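Form 7-S
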Amino acid sequence: MQVTYKDYIITDDKRKLDIQAVTDCLSRTYWAHNRSHDRIVKSIEGSVCYSVLHESKQIGFARVVTDGATMYYLADVFIVEECRGEGIGKKLVEVIVNQPEYEGLTGILGTLDAHALYEQYGFEREPERLMRRAAQPIISQ
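Output:
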């Protein structure tokens, strides 16, 4: 899948993904700053990934984890700071939620500050329903 938006390309082709750029950007987010490079790589391997490219440079990213039957989880959505405000994040979310493979599936995500963005695409706040179990430390045997 490849979509052109203004001067940007949105693609799910992992061969075009700049893992170092994604790792660098995620290391500066409130939700992923504690993830190691190896953990980010592993999350990418187990996900459908969407890159936003400008002149072959990675300027945005999102990934989807799904069972392909009932639900998908939208995660790690970002646009680099210098490219925000151009509607790229909106277009990225629009492209993802309109993929045929997610039709009829329940979409979930977590955010502290972008509720208005996701509400435009049918996501609803559900504070009473969603639960979270934080990652537990690995105990060496």
